[in-house]
Recover the amino acids of this structure.
């Protein structure tokens, strides 16, 4: 674990894996005076009063993340994405098997970013771990569900994007007017079901 | 009876802003809020509002409004011409608008952003605890358009006459920077930052102040996306730094050589294209 200074009131905690990220996030979650706690791929950004942060990090067991409050979210998907055949071809399986694999797994929101409510979900079966498109789409419709590398995700709104799209969901992923605006937050458990 | 103002003309860009919505970066939501919070809180104080009340952030002034109700207003930021019913009035002090009066704000002589507070504050709907318009993710009220009508809250008792000096945006600014978190991506980051010189590009906006000038030499490659804070100096492969302002993305993959001290960020937020920027780095 490496602590990197980030301005006068923030630290970037750098670790080696998503598991370690989850462990650090859990250790810092709920500390007093923390304004932002942002897990990402290999880091956790912590901003605010850093008084208790170093102490909390001393005793972290990086090998597993203690459970924090996590919700279970089910997202219905219509698997008719424009890249479904490409994903099946790359994995050397049928599109139906892609759907089977994608719905059988349990995912966890590792971190959010890119756009409000865009959650990077880990737990993607290895056969579905595939590269991005060679050329990103200028517009990915809201609700599109895609895969890229070790992640799968649903697009909360229309943006450009290079993920391989396998389906779409009608569910609202981000509503700034709602009491809980983002459907997904780091640590949440997610399952996909056929709509 | 509801208290309202009617926008006759927005000028180049008029946004509802308060002090933003920090605390949601883990959901991918930028902090947003006034780029020059000092000027907004000052305007609020002048009209008797809480400092957290929502006002308007005007890019290069140019706004005209009609008061549908009697209200107190204050215009802050850089020096700017203000007129009530066509007659010259002052900025940087409380001004009384009788019902149906027209307020016209000119173009500031220096700087970029003018702030307008109205007694009672603008009561646009809150989203995630803030009334700020976030241009990156489209959260908060839409940018204002001509003929928009804005509701105001209940005013507090006037707190007496008060005058403050206008802000002067200089042609050259020097901003203190704390090195890191990725200064190790740069050969002698401290010297590169200290000796470099940049100008603010016209592609700057509320997401970031884009700078053009000395090329910062960095390692090739990208970092797996990591959390970004306001003030972060991101350096893309072309070596031209971008300083993140209030509507910045919450994560990014370019190395951050240093972070601009919070108290000095507003000077970058007020810097017009062409302004010279120098950094004062420290470990």
């Amino acid at each position: 674990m490496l602590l990197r200074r980030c301005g006068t009131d923030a630290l970037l905690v750098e670790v080696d894996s998503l598991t370690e990220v989850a462990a650090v996030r859990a250790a810092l979650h709920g500390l007093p005076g923390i304004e932002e706690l942002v897990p990402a791929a290999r880091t956790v950004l912590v901003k605010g009063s850093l008084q208790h942060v170093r102490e909390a990090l001393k005793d972290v067991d990086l090998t597993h993340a203690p459970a924090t409050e996590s919700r279970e979210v089910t997202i219905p998907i219509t698997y008719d994405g424009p890249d479904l055949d490409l994903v099946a071809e790359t994995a050397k399986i049928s599109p139906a098997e892609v759907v089977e694999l994608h719905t059988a797994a349990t995912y966890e929101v590792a971190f959010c970013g890119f756009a409000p409510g865009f959650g990077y979900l880990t737990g993607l079966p290895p056969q579905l771990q595939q590269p991005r498109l060679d050329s990103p789409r200028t517009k990915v419709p809201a609700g599109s569900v895609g895969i890229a590398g070790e992640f799968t995700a649903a697009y909360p709104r229309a943006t450009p994007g290079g993920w391989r799209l396998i389906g779409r969901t009608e569910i609202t992923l981000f509503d700034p007017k709602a009491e809980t605006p983002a459907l997904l937050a780091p640590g949440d458990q997610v399952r996909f079901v056929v709509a | 009876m509801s208290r309202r103002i009617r926008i006759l003309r927005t000028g180049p860009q008029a946004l509802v802003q308060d002090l933003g919505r920090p605390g949601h970066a883990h959901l991918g939501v930028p902090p947003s809020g006034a780029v020059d919070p000092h000027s907004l809180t000052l305007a609020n104080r002048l009209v008797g509002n809480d400092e957290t009340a929502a006002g308007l952030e005007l890019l290069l002034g140019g706004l005209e409004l009609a008061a549908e109700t009697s209200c107190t207003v204050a215009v802050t930021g850089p020096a700017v011409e203000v007129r009530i019913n066509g007659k010259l009035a002052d900025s940087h002090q409380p001004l009384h608008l009788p019902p149906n009066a027209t307020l016209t704000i000119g173009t500031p002589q220096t700087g970029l952003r003018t702030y307008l507070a109205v007694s009672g504050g603008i009561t646009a709907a809150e989203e995630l605890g803030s009334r700020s318009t976030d241009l990156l993710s489209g959260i908060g009220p839409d940018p204002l358009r001509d003929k928009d009508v804005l509701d105001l809250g209940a005013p507090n008792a006037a707190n007496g006459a008060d005058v403050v000096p206008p802000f002067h945006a200089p042609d050259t600014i020097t901003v203190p920077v704390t090195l890191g978190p990725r200064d190790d991506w740069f050969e002698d980051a401290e010297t590169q930052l200290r000796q470099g010189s940049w100008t603010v590009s016209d592609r700057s906006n509320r997401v970031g102040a884009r700078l053009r000038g000395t090329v910062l030499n960095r390692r090739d490659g990208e970092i797996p996306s990591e959390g970004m804070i306001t003030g972060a100096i991101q350096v893309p492969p072309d070596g031209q730094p971008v300083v993140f302002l209030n509507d910045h993305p919450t994560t990014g993959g370019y190395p951050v050589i240093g972070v601009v001290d919070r108290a000095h960020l507003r000077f970058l937020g007020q810097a017009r294209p062409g302004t010279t920027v120098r950094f004062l780095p420290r470990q």
Summary: Chain B has a mean pLDDT of 95. Chain B touches chain A at residues 22-29, 125, 127-128, 137-140, 178-182, 224-229, 231-232, 249-251, 256, 259-262 (CB under 8 Å). The CA atoms of residues 144 and 248 of chain B lie 21 Å apart.
